[in-house]
Write a structure and sequence with these properties.
It is built from one helix and five strands, in the order E-E-E-H-E-E. By secondary structure, it is mainly beta. The strands form two sheets. It has a three-stranded antiparallel beta sheet with strand order 3-4-5. A two-stranded antiparallel sheet has the order 1-2. The longest helix has 12 residues.
Length: 145
Protein backbone atom coordinates (compact mmCIF):
# COMPACT_ATOMS: atom_id res chain seq x y z
CA UNK A 1 0.00 0.00 0.00
CA UNK A 2 1.11 3.19 -0.64
CA UNK A 3 1.01 5.83 1.69
CA UNK A 4 0.07 9.29 0.60
CA UNK A 5 1.39 11.89 2.75
CA UNK A 6 -0.36 15.11 2.57
CA UNK A 7 1.90 17.78 3.60
CA UNK A 8 0.98 21.25 3.71
CA UNK A 9 2.64 23.23 1.05
CA UNK A 10 5.20 25.62 2.20
CA UNK A 11 3.96 29.12 2.45
CA UNK A 12 4.52 31.10 -0.67
CA UNK A 13 7.53 33.20 -0.65
CA UNK A 14 6.91 36.87 -0.91
CA UNK A 15 9.83 38.70 -2.29
CA UNK A 16 9.66 42.33 -1.68
CA UNK A 17 11.54 44.37 -4.09
CA UNK A 18 12.27 47.84 -2.97
CA UNK A 19 12.61 50.29 -5.76
CA UNK A 20 15.17 52.90 -5.14
CA UNK A 21 13.55 56.19 -4.27
CA UNK A 22 14.36 58.97 -6.65
CA UNK A 23 14.96 62.21 -4.85
CA UNK A 24 14.94 65.27 -7.09
CA UNK A 25 16.45 68.22 -5.42
CA UNK A 26 15.54 71.63 -6.84
CA UNK A 27 17.62 74.65 -6.11
CA UNK A 28 15.62 77.16 -4.10
CA UNK A 29 14.60 80.24 -6.12
CA UNK A 30 17.05 83.08 -5.72
CA UNK A 31 15.97 85.51 -3.08
CA UNK A 32 15.71 89.10 -4.28
CA UNK A 33 16.09 91.55 -1.51
CA UNK A 34 14.90 95.02 -2.46
CA UNK A 35 16.43 97.80 -0.57
CA UNK A 36 14.45 101.04 -0.34
CA UNK A 37 15.74 103.76 -2.67
CA UNK A 38 17.19 106.74 -0.90
CA UNK A 39 14.95 109.81 -1.14
CA UNK A 40 16.43 112.68 -3.10
CA UNK A 41 15.56 116.04 -1.62
CA UNK A 42 16.45 119.10 -3.67
CA UNK A 43 16.68 122.23 -1.67
CA UNK A 44 16.53 125.51 -3.56
CA UNK A 45 18.20 128.43 -1.94
CA UNK A 46 15.84 131.31 -1.22
CA UNK A 47 15.77 134.00 -3.93
CA UNK A 48 18.16 136.84 -3.37
CA UNK A 49 16.74 139.93 -1.76
CA UNK A 50 17.46 143.17 -3.55
CA UNK A 51 17.13 146.38 -1.66
CA UNK A 52 16.72 149.47 -3.74
CA UNK A 53 17.41 152.86 -2.39
CA UNK A 54 14.77 155.48 -3.12
CA UNK A 55 15.65 157.55 -6.18
CA UNK A 56 17.49 160.72 -5.46
CA UNK A 57 15.62 163.90 -6.16
CA UNK A 58 17.12 165.59 -9.18
CA UNK A 59 16.28 169.01 -10.49
CA UNK A 60 15.76 168.96 -14.24
CA UNK A 61 14.93 171.93 -16.38
CA UNK A 62 12.38 170.28 -18.65
CA UNK A 63 10.94 172.00 -21.70
CA UNK A 64 7.23 172.73 -21.87
CA UNK A 65 5.12 169.63 -22.44
CA UNK A 66 4.43 168.85 -26.06
CA UNK A 67 0.89 167.78 -26.86
CA UNK A 68 0.28 164.79 -29.07
CA UNK A 69 -0.86 166.13 -32.39
CA UNK A 70 -3.87 164.67 -34.10
CA UNK A 71 -3.48 164.18 -37.84
CA UNK A 72 -4.45 167.40 -39.55
CA UNK A 73 -6.80 166.50 -42.36
CA UNK A 74 -10.14 168.13 -43.15
CA UNK A 75 -11.31 168.71 -39.55
CA UNK A 76 -9.91 171.20 -37.02
CA UNK A 77 -7.22 169.62 -34.85
CA UNK A 78 -5.76 170.39 -31.43
CA UNK A 79 -2.06 171.20 -31.76
CA UNK A 80 0.78 173.28 -30.36
CA UNK A 81 1.44 176.45 -32.34
CA UNK A 82 5.17 176.81 -32.95
CA UNK A 83 4.81 180.55 -33.57
CA UNK A 84 2.89 181.77 -30.50
CA UNK A 85 3.87 178.81 -28.27
CA UNK A 86 0.26 178.06 -27.26
CA UNK A 87 -1.96 174.98 -27.32
CA UNK A 88 -4.67 175.77 -29.90
CA UNK A 89 -7.40 174.21 -32.04
CA UNK A 90 -6.74 175.09 -35.68
CA UNK A 91 -9.09 177.00 -37.94
CA UNK A 92 -9.64 175.29 -41.30
CA UNK A 93 -10.26 176.90 -44.67
CA UNK A 94 -10.70 175.05 -48.02
CA UNK A 95 -8.45 176.31 -50.84
CA UNK A 96 -8.19 175.29 -54.49
CA UNK A 97 -5.52 172.66 -54.98
CA UNK A 98 -4.22 170.19 -57.53
CA UNK A 99 -7.24 167.85 -57.26
CA UNK A 100 -9.63 170.72 -57.98
CA UNK A 101 -7.81 171.58 -61.20
CA UNK A 102 -7.55 167.91 -62.29
CA UNK A 103 -11.34 167.47 -61.99
CA UNK A 104 -12.00 170.79 -63.81
CA UNK A 105 -9.67 169.81 -66.68
CA UNK A 106 -11.13 166.31 -66.96
CA UNK A 107 -14.71 167.63 -67.19
CA UNK A 108 -13.67 170.26 -69.75
CA UNK A 109 -11.89 167.79 -72.04
CA UNK A 110 -14.79 165.31 -71.83
CA UNK A 111 -17.00 168.05 -73.33
CA UNK A 112 -18.96 168.48 -70.13
CA UNK A 113 -17.82 172.11 -70.00
CA UNK A 114 -21.02 173.52 -68.40
CA UNK A 115 -20.30 171.38 -65.31
CA UNK A 116 -16.55 171.96 -65.14
CA UNK A 117 -16.98 174.75 -62.54
CA UNK A 118 -18.61 172.45 -59.96
CA UNK A 119 -15.28 171.39 -58.28
CA UNK A 120 -14.74 175.05 -57.26
CA UNK A 121 -17.91 174.79 -55.13
CA UNK A 122 -17.28 171.35 -53.57
CA UNK A 123 -15.00 171.46 -50.52
CA UNK A 124 -14.16 167.73 -50.71
CA UNK A 125 -12.15 168.49 -53.90
CA UNK A 126 -10.14 171.27 -52.26
CA UNK A 127 -7.05 171.28 -50.05
CA UNK A 128 -7.46 172.30 -46.39
CA UNK A 129 -5.38 175.10 -44.81
CA UNK A 130 -4.95 174.93 -40.99
CA UNK A 131 -4.20 178.25 -39.28
CA UNK A 132 -3.64 179.32 -35.69
CA UNK A 133 -6.63 181.31 -34.28
CA UNK A 134 -4.31 183.46 -32.11
CA UNK A 135 -1.53 184.52 -34.49
CA UNK A 136 -3.15 183.60 -37.85
CA UNK A 137 -0.04 181.77 -39.10
CA UNK A 138 -0.45 178.73 -41.37
CA UNK A 139 0.40 175.61 -39.37
CA UNK A 140 -0.33 172.94 -42.00
CA UNK A 141 -1.90 172.45 -45.43
CA UNK A 142 -3.65 169.13 -46.07
CA UNK A 143 -3.26 168.30 -49.75
CA UNK A 144 -5.66 165.87 -51.36
CA UNK A 145 -3.17 164.88 -54.08
Amino acid sequence: MAYVINQAAPPPMIIEQHQPQMIIEQAPPPMIIQQPQPQVIIEHPPPPVYVQAPPAMAVVNAPAPVAIQAPMKSLPAATFCRFCQQQVVTVTKPINGVLTWIVVGTLFFCLIWPFCLIPFCVSSCKDIKHTCPRCNNVLHTYKRV
